[in-house]
Amino acid sequence: MLDDLQALELSRLSGPAVLALTRGLLAQQQRLHATTLGALSELDRRQLFALDGAGSIRGWLTQQPTGR
Known about the structure:
Number of helices: 3
Strand content: under 5%
Largest sheet: none
Radius of gyration: 17 Å
Helix content: 55-70%
Number of strands: 0
């Protein structure tokens, strides 16, 4: 599904369609962010980061491709 969205030629969509798409994407981004925070909290609570050899949640996050 994400691949399909990325493949969209936005310049071919009408203004209202781009507006609706963007609103929907922002709403989904917020839902994904909330779900990710919940998963990270559980990972930290259960110290599951150790399964990947990390000593902390921060260490685990920095090991991830999108780590900060």
